[in-house]
Write a structure and sequence with these properties.
Elements (H helix, E strand, L loop, with lengths): L2 H4 L3 H46 L23 E10 L3 H14 L4 E10 L5 H6 L6 E7 L23 H4 L5 E5 L3 E3 L4 H4 L8 E5 L2 H4 L16 E9 H6 L2 H11 L5 H9 L4 E3 L6 E2 H4 L4 H8 L6 H6 L3 E3 L16 H13 L7
Parallel strand pairs: 1-2, 1-4, 2-3, 6-8, 9-10
Antiparallel strand pairs: 4-7, 5-10, 6-7
């Protein structure tokens, strides 16, 4: 008998194998061209975004100059402002700069009371903070215990940042306070911010652009009904209402049962619900988003007519270095607008005595 008769299905097996190889080759080829097309499309989008981002500015401008701060009128400006900061040994330089910049830019009749909540300060740090006192500027250091909430025990989240949960508890004598992160600069008097009427709200805050630009984790928080996500780096806090409504316990419960990307910020966003009031972006101008998005898009997001980075930052009451990129001790190219902000930060850092 012939081989064909011995194994009549063999030729079909060979045919099937050849067909499979052809199909696989076609799939690989299609995948290759799809990747090329995708890469070209991404490059096209990147180029468009780059042009859009730069076209509203002076192309590759040299930012080696002093930012001209919008003049403020101190006539009739007075009042006591209670300001809370949180720090540890790693953030002492930033905390001192925040206080020093506020001192230097306040109106003469304003009285600032700084309440600095601290964990694990080094020898001499308390004295360094208290040495910033002067007429109409008081500094009180409040040493705190370590926080032991479940979901921060083994994460990168700083335990010190969770101290903001306990501001109302630690300052029982105050009905309200202004909380600010340590990585800020204050460029104008804070009375305008402090005198915002909170009404029945827990907080007055500035909305965070991650709602619009980087909203992966924000979508998980189910804030669609409220319609915005806020940044917790600057908050005017209704301490009286926070105490009365048991918000501290609710924040603890949320943190113990929900692992989130931005632990304290996410918890605050969820727990306060719709009892929150939006403030003008000048009270918390976050440089991070301007480094990664077209200025025209951010102007639209905040309802502003900014045309340059000077427009954005010269009119800010508080500039917030809200990312891992901080101004201390890093080299920045003069064509990066961050160089302009870094120079401004060093204006308030250089005169301070070195920490021991």
């Amino acid at each position: 008998m012939s081989d064909d008769k011995k194994d009549p299905g063999m030729k079909w097996v060979i045919f099937a194998n050849v067909l499979l190889v052809v199909i696989m080759a076609l799939l690989v080829t299609a995948s290759y061209f799809e990747k090329i097309a995708s890469k070209n499309k991404k490059q096209e989008i990147d180029n468009i975004e780059k042009v859009e981002s730069v076209s509203s500015l002076d192309d590759y401008k040299n930012y080696d100059f002093d930012l001209k701060i919008t003049p403020q009128n101190c006539e009739g400006v007075s009042g006591v402002v209670d300001i809370v900061l949180i720090t540890d040994a790693n953030y002492m330089d930033f905390t001192r700069v925040a206080i020093n910049s506020a001192k230097k830019t306040k109106c003469p009749e304003s009285v600032y009371n700084f309440h600095v909540m601290t964990i694990a300060l080094k020898d001499g740090d308390k004295e360094a903070l208290e040495s910033l006192k002067e007429e109409n500027v008081n500094v009180r250091v409040l040493e705190q215990k370590q926080i032991d909430l479940f979901y921060i025990r083994d994460t990168h989240v700083s335990k010190a940042s969770l101290l903001k949960y306990y501001i109302a508890e630690q300052l029982p004598e105050l009905d309200k306070a202004l909380y600010v992160d340590s990585d800020i600069l204050v460029l104008h008097d804070l009375n305008e911010l402090y005198k915002i009427n909170l009404g029945d709200n827990y907080l007055a805050v500035v909305k965070d652009p991650s709602w619009f630009f980087e909203n992966g984790h924000v979508l998980e928080l189910n804030l669609e009904e409220r319609g915005f996500y806020f940044n917790s780096g600057v908050m005017l806090m209704n301490l009286d209402k926070i105490r009365k409504d048991g918000i501290i316990q609710k924040l603890e419960d949320y943190t113990n049962n929900n692992f989130r990307t931005y632990m304290d910020q996410d918890a605050l966003n969820v727990v306060v619900g719709d009892k929150v009031q939006l403030m003008d972006v000048k009270f918390n101008t976050m440089n991070f988003f301007f480094a990664h998005n077209p200025i025209s898009k951010l102007a639209e997001f905040y309802g502003k007519d900014w045309k340059s980075y000077e427009d954005v930052f010269s009119g800010a009451t508080i500039i917030h270095f809200a990312s891992s990129k901080k101004p201390l001790g890093i080299k920045v190219e003069k064509t990066d607008f961050f160089y302009m902000l870094q120079k401004l930060w060093y204006k308030y850092y250089t005169p301070l005595p070195k920490l021991s």
